[in-house]
Design goal:
The protein contains nine helices and nine strands. It has one domain: NAD(P)-binding Rossmann-like Domain (Rossmann fold, 3-Layer(aba) Sandwich), CATH 3.40.50. The strands form two sheets. Strands 3-2-1-4-5-6-9 form a seven-stranded parallel sheet, with helices on both faces. Strands 7-8 form a two-stranded parallel sheet. The longest helix has 21 residues, at 76-96. By secondary structure, the chain is an alpha/beta fold. The chain is globular, with a radius of gyration of 19 Å.
Length: 281
């Protein structure tokens, strides 16, 4: 049985992940508010403060799922202080205390997709896509990934996984995205929260694999009743190569490549797919 630290343990994903893993592992939940439920150890604190992290000295931590962050719409300064410097503090503390596995919540916002004028480098968007963010949040997540690269170079024995998570909600139905709006790529790719929880659970429970990985955490199907090629052509005209979505079997494929999550963790967003199937009946 492993001992796993979960930061942001009282959040939408965190609270559910604590419940999902607490029966199989010793869970240390770190957050400012106590998560609901039992069967875990709660540590009140801020992951970015050495003074608060010292409360973890009594625990021999095997792994961390780092979910705590400031999210979309944050100030640039806030994003850098919390998502970048705060994560550096947390990971350096954990690495110095013997933690070998680190799973972090990054974001598809790294690409810059939250702006109306976003044009992807390629489709579907893979993990190699560059950072084009100009608002601060996506940049802070990109810099967080760079922090993990730095730490991985220092300690190559660590297993570090950055999951570029799509928008996550606790339910909903698909919609046709008639017009572009801020975060329109997020709205068309979001997963129901049960899938996000399962993805982080799979990532932290897979055997150790030293090195650094970046994985898109998305459903492999677009969140729309309109075929992907039609949706993209409506948004972009003929400015993009849409041949992938014209291939049989890819008619409703996601805007982001979901293949690496399946390859690495055997993950497919089945709960989200079930919601989409029911909505189309």
């Amino acid at each position: 049985m492993s001992t796993i630290l979960i930061t942001g343990a009282s959040g939408l994903v965190g609270q559910r992940l604590v419940a999902a893993l607490s029966g199989r592992h010793e869970i240390v939940a770190m957050s400012r508010r106590k998560p609901q439920g039992e069967g875990f150890t709660w540590v009140r604190g801020d992951f970015a403060r050495w003074e608060d992290l010292s409360q973890l000295d009594a625990h021999s931590l095997d792994a961390v799922v780092h979910l705590a962050a400031v999210t979309g719409g944050c100030l640039e300064r806030e994003g850098i202080l919390v998502n970048v410097e705060g994560t550096r503090v947390l990971l350096q503390y954990l690495a110095s205390h013997g933690c070998r596995k680190m799973v972090l919540a990054s974001s598809i916002a790294v690409t810059g997709m939250q702006r109306l004028d976003f044009t992807p480098e390629h489709l579907p968007i893979t993990e190699s896509h560059g950072c084009h963010d100009r608002d601060g949040y996506g940049f802070s997540k990109y810099m967080m990934e760079e922090v993990t690269r730095y730490i991985s170079r220092q300690k190559p024995e660590l297993d570090i996984v950055n999951i570029r998570l799509s928008s996550t909600q606790a339910g909903g139905t698909p919609r046709d995205l008639a017009d572009r709006h801020p975060w329109f790529f997020g709205a068309s790719t979001y997963m129901v929260v049960e899938d996000s929880v399962r993805l982080f659970g799979l990532a932290v429970e897979t055997p150790l694999k030293p090195g650094l990985r970046i994985v898109n955490g998305v459903c492999n199907r677009i969140w729309s009743t309109v075929k992907t090629v039609e949706q993209l052509r409506h948004w972009y005209g003929d400015a993009l190569d849409l041949s992938y979505y014209e291939t049989p079997g890819n008619e409703y494929a996601s805007l982001f490549d979901a293949s690496k999550a399946k390859e690495e963790f055997g993950f497919e967003a089945t709960n989200t797919l079930d919601v989409l199937k029911k909505a189309q009946r």
